Amino acid sequence: MKNNKFWTYFNKKGYYVILSLCILTILVTTFITRNNLNTLDKVNEENYIDLDEEYGTFDLEDVGTINAYQNDLDITNEDIAGSGTATAEDLILTEEETAKEESKDLAAEEEVIIASNNETNNNIIPLPVAEETKEDEKVVSLIDEEPDKETVETFSFSEDTIIQWPSYGEIVMDFSSDKLVYDKTLEEYRVHPAVCIAAAENEEVKAAAKGRVETVKKEADTGITVVINHGDGWKTIYGQLKEDLAIKENDVVEKGQVIGKIAEPTKYSALLGKHVYFKVEKDGKPVDPKQFQHE
Questions:
Q1: Within a domain: residue 99?
Q2: Residue 64: which residues within 8 A CB-CB, separation 6 or more?
Q3: pTM for this structure?
Q4: Do residues 237 and 227 lie in contact, with contact meaning Cβ atoms separated by under 8 Å?
Q5: Cα–Cα distance between 107 and 114 in angstroms, integer?
Q6: Is 81 among the domain residues?
Q7: In 10 A of CB 146, how many CB atoms?
Q8: Structural domain tally of the chain?
Q9: Phi, psi of 247 (to 5 degrees)
């Protein structure tokens, strides 16, 4: 019974209910749309860039004005003729005429030169040919015999080489590469890759063999030190020398040549007394100097 009343009421009032819902929908849609438009306007205002303010104002020409400028730039043959400027055809004709005139002038000059040469040849008196002097021959021979400065002198050294002992005195610290020896200055046992030969102060130190002075340097343990390269991977090193050496780097020294004098020992070998530090190397590895025969 109640359902019948509802449908009866809805049939009578249904039109107004539907109309009310439509109006409400329109109002809600309008409200939402305006709200979105307001939000969009705010975003546009925030991102707005005034091009005139940013880049300045520009006056744009219309199409007719631009075409008028283009017509003014076009150059016709009449304009060229009126300005007195030569056309490409005129330039070609002018160059051809100039070339013809130059060829005529050259032909005329050649005829004059040939004629004058014929007259001159008839009056030429042959001159005697100068002989080369002996001085010129000497200069040429000296130039030919000039030695090549870039030639590098080579040396030879081997285990059979008889070396010059750099100084004669007692060995105060011997060579030892495979067992420890006591260093009384440092108060420790260590290997020793050279021999220390006692010597008096200012005693001369001599080169063991012929070679080239490779390095002159100052070391903390051996003081002023000289390295001589003998070739074939062999080098000899001399330490505990005075600064006023008798040689310099790149000098070629002979066997037995004086290279320097004995100085005071460094603090790392002070208790050995005055001596010369003498080391022999083969390819960077120490070799016992005592194995060589020496003079």
A1: no
A2: none
A3: 0.50
A4: yes
A5: 11
A6: yes
A7: 8
A8: 2
A9: -135, 175
CA dihedral 171, 172, 178, 184 (to 10 degrees): 180
Report whether pLDDT(114) > 50.
Answer: yes
Range of the domain at 236: 171-291
Single-letter code of the amino acid located at 18: I
The token pair at 28 is 């809600």
Give the whole-angstrom CA distance, residue 221 versus residue 228.
19
Domain boundary residue among 55, 87, 119?
A: 87
- Quick one: pLDDT band at residue 10, thresholds 50, 70, 90? low
pLDDT at 93: 53
> Which DSSP category does 294 fall into?
B
The angle at the Cα of 68, spanning 62 to 74, to the nearest 5 degrees, equals: 140
Q: Is 51 a member of any domain?
A: yes
Cβ-contact 204, 261 below 8 angstroms: yes
Q: Write b or e for each residue in 226-248: b if 16 or more Cβ atoms lie within 10 A of its Cβ, otherwise e.
A: bbbbbbeebbbbbbbbbeebbbe
pLDDT tens, 37-57? 888 777 777 776 665 665 555
- Per-residue pLDDT tens digits for 138-185: 444 444 444 444 445 778 899 999 999 999 899 999 999 889 999 999
Residues belonging to the chain: 295
Nearby residues of 23 by Cβ (< 8 Å), 6 or more positions away: none
Of the residues 87, 112, 136, the one at which a domain ends:
87
The torsion of the CA quartet 132, 134, 136, 141, rounded to 10 degrees, works out to 120
Q: Are 248 and 215 in contact (CB under 8 A)?
A: no
Neighbours of 163 (CB within 10 A): 20
Three-state DSSP state, 121? helix
How high does pLDDT run on average in the chain? 78
Residue 274 DSSP symbol: S
Angstrom distance (rounded) from CA 52 to CA 287: 89
